[in-house]
Design a protein that fits this description.
This protein is α/β, with parallel strands linked by helices and 675 residues long. It is built from 17 helices and 28 strands. The chain is 23% helix and 17% strand. Helix 8 packs parallel to helix 14.
Length: 675
Amino acid sequence: MAKVTVDGIEVEVPNGASALQACEAAGKEIPRFCYHERLSVAGNCRMCLVEVEKAPKPVASCAYPVMDGMKIFTDTQTVRNARRGVMEFLLINHPLDCPICDQGGECDLQDQAVAYGKSFSRYEEGKRAVKDKYVGPLIKTIMNRCIHCTRCVRFSQEVAGVPEMGATGRGEAMEIGTYVEKALTTELSGNLIDICPVGALTSRPYAFITRPWELSKIESVDVMDALGAPIRVDVRAGEVLRVLPRQNDEVNEEWLADRSRFAIDGLKRRRLDRPWVRRDGKLVAASWAEAFQAVAAGLQGKRIGAIAGDTCDAESLFALKQMLNALGSTSHDARQDGARIDASRPDFYLFNSGIAGIDDADALVIIGSNPRVESPVLNARIRRRWLAGGFRVGMIGPDAELTYAAERLGAGPQDIAAAASFLDGAERPMIILGRGALARQDGAAILKAAWDLAASTNALREDWHGFNLLHHFGGQVGALDVGFVPGEGGHDVEGMLGGGVDALWLFAADDFDVARIPAGTFIVYQGHHGDRAAARADVILPGAAYTEKDGTYANTEGRVQHGRLSTMPPGEAREDWRIIRAASQFLGVTLPFDTLDALRGEMAGNHPALARLNAGPVRGCTDSTGPAGEGALSAEPFAPAVTNYWQVDPISRASAVMAECAATYLAPQPAMAAE
């Protein structure tokens, strides 16, 4: 550790730390544009100038390493004059369009010009003009505003792993762009908006919509993938206008995937906003009382089953399971994809190493998964660990364009056991098993084979748990935690679709083959979008999307977080647990709770893990006994679980922005002409 004095305050910082980090440790605010704590140091902007004792001139604190006994001064007249001069140069070519800039009100350049710049300009010549660039349907560019901080260039190369942005030209002719004008091929492009300190890169869907001071800001959790990133939902007049990430170093750091950020326009399209009942073969609008009466009549005397979707809150799943059990049914399943997941023990279905545990691993085998499209932010963490060195990655499955080097170890489940040699010598080996790999007839055998691989490579021990299952959505783990799987004598999804039940309660379940439902089955659909299953329903009960209710969600590592109600559900739609509670009364099995707190108390009594908020995974494995894993492994190779990242659930399928992304990124590429 080095002892450094900053404006008379003595602090200790690690050897190799920068002067800027020492200043922050002393509680001093240092202005900066190019410096970002998660990117490499560039030293471009010079805004972070400070004085160092015995140095001949002010130094760029972001790139200046500390030494024991160093004395730093952050607010001398020399420093003030230097910063004013730097700011004056930065503003020479910056256009005066703050009134029409979407960054206005949350712009680093605005804030620092006021705090550290001059109150007048001496520049009278014409400003430089730069052509705007096309970088895709999500990012709007106004390159006149660019100050060449190169944050976007470094993010694209270092975090996203797609080195498609860079600088061309020199001096006044220098421009930031994509070399060849094209859409950025990364699922993390929206983070460029957050890290751009000026208005050069802004959100295209959000352009000219509102001002930041007009928004109500609600902290919630993302459910569009299984990472469970903490988010901030920005709302105006009852409409979600923007979703931004919140920082959590153990989960998402400060990044957010593009689908989570930009699919929000799907929240206001194709919505179910009133109950519907099928009469004479046609769905007609009805009151809630009429809908519940139709449900009670339709379920009377029938074998009932329920299939739940992937983004449902744990409270509603718990209530639905309680209601079905009271009706004598144990046919309930949240694995609509057909994944053969053993829910008898949490570590059979959790990301046990923890997302932050990727930083500690030294070898990784990915089985039947493509983290880049299944969880882009988690994939960025794998890339960061790979860049640090001493980390080998192997892959079993179809060819995938990852953002790090991965050795191909095989194509199908029969190659799993042979991957043990790849992990030889690893101190902390990791296995990531994709949920999509279990959605096959031999899924249970694959789960056991992956567990056995972890056991045979010393990945299951008291100080390390190297077996990890990567889920796809934010409601999947919570469903397993509340036991929304078939009970004794109950049918799974396959059994229910095979005629094991006479009536089906579909709870936001749209991602299975609805055509397989046997004719004559009575269907109750409870959900928020008129997607695939709603048209097949006999009764539709309009529910709430994840931004329209208070709910509990568990991410892929089992971390429990609360989502918050940001806007009210549209029309007559209601929170899902309230719908189930009202239905139970009409069905004669009234559930014993009337408030959300009472429901959560009941749920915590049955499933204590869901009451431990924001607790990371328990490191280590105390019982290496594996899942049952009946059946033999198939020779059939793994297939991609996600073929269209942009449209994988009812919300993103209703989004016009996601439709444009799908059309842009999934369009066949033109063939190259022969030379």
